[in-house]
Amino acid sequence: MEQAIIETRGLTKTYGSLKAVDNLDLSIGKGEIFGLLGPNGAGKSTTILMLLGLTEPTAGEVRICGLNATRNPIAVKRKVGYMPDSVGFYNDLTALDNLMYIARLNGTPEARVRERAKEMLVEVGLEGAIHKKAGTFSRGMKQRLGLADVLIRQPEVIILDEPTLGIDPAGVKDFLELILQLNRRQGLTILLSSHHLHQVQQVCSRVGIFVGGKLLAQGGIETLAGELFSTTPYTLQVTLQSPYKQNGALEADLLQLPGIRQVAVAGNAVEIAGMQDITPDIVRFFVGKGFDVMGVQKKTYGLDEIYHRYFENNLKENVSNEKSSGLFQRSFFGKFKKR
Ligand SMILES: Nc1ncnc2c1ncn2[C@@H]1O[C@H](COP(=O)(O)OP(=O)(O)OP(=O)(O)O)[C@@H](O)[C@H]1O
Q1: What is the CATH T-level fold of the domain 231-299, as seen in this structure?
Q2: Whose CA is nearest to atom 18 of ligand 1?
Q3: Is the ipTM of this complex over 0.90?
Q4: What is the pTM of this model?
């Protein structure tokens, strides 16, 4: 990894007997888009507050752009742009007036205020709504305006807390694309907290899986999947024309093929997991047995599977700890399903 821009060591925050953040070691490199992923109550917001120097850690330390965030919160504020999950604007002012106000607050020279505000609105794709009142904006537009508000301060790092909450699917796609563009065009380091697995997967180069105040894993999605599914890294889904009448014979024969570890049959779908990619052997096997094969698809492990697997492992390790197991899982999926 390149030079770390955000670094935490043993970062801990306790509220009474509750460890909201427990001994967090995080390292985010320059120009990365890092996804902090976890269910409600996992400790994401508390971590962000400590990164910004807005709340003091009980133990451990945070460094952002080389600065200790607890000791130098004002200097950190100059380097880091923070967008909370809901950004407030003056509803009766236009987007341009809102941004000009923010530009002035941030000390932009008066002669540059209007131009700078306009540049930012173009940057976030709001050029068509410059003269519209912020109060008439959709949630997605407000988030873009929020991003312009952050960018006008010319930060090196931006921290986005659940930025796509409540935006419709098309708006989410556009917003994520905007984040990617900003990262590429300006080399901004971005930390994004979310519980939307699919969204995080689309934009983040690395993710941290955060549950019950603890970071269970961090890394690229492929690396995490490789570690978790190392016993069966290849999975093939074969669709047959007609449902297979199960008698166990097909499964037994498939398990004789080299490296095959698991076979699951459901109707006309057969899922085969193994140590190596033997797709041609599997296709030959089915054709040789007289099956009509309608489709063959290699399965890649996404964040969904990774997340589930970490939960499973976490559940096993914490059977006696109700808070970090079932409750978290339920609240996560409850929230996940709703949106
Ligand atoms: N000021 C506080 N006083 C007491 N407990 C708190 C405080 N702030 C947070 N907590 C608790 O710390 C834990 C972590 O909360 P946090 O808000 O950081 O989680 P989160 O991952 O951001 O979840 P969400 O997405 O729901 O905001 C929760 O159990 C929460 O109730």
Answers
A1: Alpha-Beta Plaits (3.30.70)
A2: 43
A3: yes
A4: 0.76
